[in-house]
Design a protein that fits this description.
Layout: E1 2-15, H1 19-28, E2 31-45, E3 50-54, H2 61-69, E4 76-81, H3 90-96, E5 97-101, H4 113-123, H5 128-141, H6 157-169, E6 175-179, H7 187-204, E7 207-211, H8 215-221, E8 224-229, E9 232-238, H9 239-246, E10 249-256, E11 272-273, E12 284-290, H10 296-304, E13 309-315, H11 319-327
Parallel strand pairs: 3-7, 3-8, 5-6, 6-7
Antiparallel strand pairs: 1-2, 1-4, 8-9, 10-12, 10-13, 11-12
Bound molecules: adenosine-5'-triphosphate and magnesium ion.
Length: 332
């Protein structure tokens, strides 16, 4: 459905010294600097997949999405979406895709939502019966009923995003690109939007490429993630593989009755000291261990045999700490 091979985007940024002299100089001898935003990325996406496309700020996510949608031309490499070149065949491509950029609206600012939707329905020649069916479905799950008569400019951020999603999906696109669809939204709206995306994927078979900094989106929607860093693809695979590989460490925290002296671990119980920032006072002991080798009860028993413990707690590693490790180079 989507095929990307050695995809590369280099932005050419004009450089100019400050002031009039700089402007004149730039006129005669333009200076450029090249910025490699996407660096030889390759992947394929099959119909019906929901793929999370993640990376730190500036990693090249939006640039990739823009090339996939045909907004930007690639510097080199290949993109095929439904067998087409999305940039050369922009018009044909547009019918089959839907795009949401969470950072900016694509709707007509002054029109009431229903007017925007009607226009989009006509542009894409959505059959009237199908249009009504989609509208009813969206009104229900995105709670749009009370918003249909409201102009976009009067909507709150969360209302606008729900409107945006409806507008993007009303023509039944096969592929949906969502670039930070939940940015700045409260938990309830986020949940609603996730449910909507899930439903469009499950019931409508939409293929979804999702860019987000919200790992809740990823956990709830994606089986597969692609991680990019500095324009390069550093991971492509199931979310569960990352979890298994990096999620095997647990941290256990003990509150002691008195300051802790040196402690000895019995053979077979392997622990690592916690990172210094987690150790805030002398009566608190934080230990990390690999749960595939050592159990929490082994660690707890070893400590309790040597010191008086008031309380202890065990922390599951969350996805965000795992992703942070990967962003910090844990995959190298
Ligand atoms: N039009 C442009 N001209 C020059 N450089 C650009 C342009 N657009 C993006 N860049 C640069 O390309 C790199 C990748 O940007 P991109 O917007 O793709 O990142 P991103 O992964 O979407 O980041 P974010 O999470 O902040 O949205 C950045 O270093 C950015 O400064
Ligand atoms: Mg971006």
């Amino acid at each position: 459905m989507i095929e990307v091979k050695d995809l590369t985007k280099i932005y050419r940024v004009n450089q100019k010294d400050p002031g009039v002299r700089g402007a004149v100089k730039a006129l005669f001898r333009p200076q450029h600097q090249d910025k490699i935003a996407v660096d030889h990325i390759s992947f394929r996406v099959a119909p019906g997949e929901v793929v999370g496309y993640i990376g730190v700020n500036g990693a090249g996510k939006s640039t990739t999405i823009k090339m996939l949608t045909g907004i930007l031309a690639a510097t080199s490499g290949e993109v095929r979406v439904l067998g087409r070149d999305p940039h050369r065949q922009r018009v044909a491509n547009a019918r089959d895709i839907g795009v949401v950029f969470g950072q900016r609206s694509q709707l007509w600012w002054d029109l009431a939502l229903i007017e925007s939707l009607n226009l989009i329905g006509q542009i894409y020649r959505v059959e009237p019966a199908r249009f009504q069916q989609r509208l009813a479905q969206f009104s229900d799950i995105l709670e749009l009923k009370s918003l249909l008569q409201v102009p976009i400019r009067n909507m709150s951020l969360g209302q606008k995003m729900r409107a945006e999603l409806a507008a993007t999906l009303i023509h039944d696109p096969q592929i949906v690109y969502l670039d930070e669809p939940t940015i700045g939204l409260d938990l309830i709206v986020k949940e609603r939007i996730r449910e909507f995306i899930r439903q469009q994927n499950r019931e409508n078979g939409a293929t979804v490429i999702l860019t987000t900094h919200d790992l809740g989106d990823i956990e709830q929607l994606c089986q597969r993630v692609i991680i990019i860093d500095n324009g390069k693809l550093i991971y492509d695979g199931p979310l569960s593989t990352i979890r298994d590989r990096f999620g095997k460490f647990r941290a256990i925290t003990f509150e002691m009755a008195a300051d802790v002296g040196p402690l000895v671990m019995p053979p077979g119980t392997e622990v690592m000291p916690a990172p210094a920032e987690d150790v805030t006072d002398a009566r608190r002991l934080v230990l990390r261990f690999d749960r595939t080798h050592t159990t929490a009860s082994q660690v707890a028993a070893a400590i309790m045999n040597q010191a008086e413990v008031i309380d202890f707690s065990l922390a599951e590693p969350d996805l965000s700490s795992i992703i942070k490790q990967i962003y910090n180079g844990a995959l190298d």
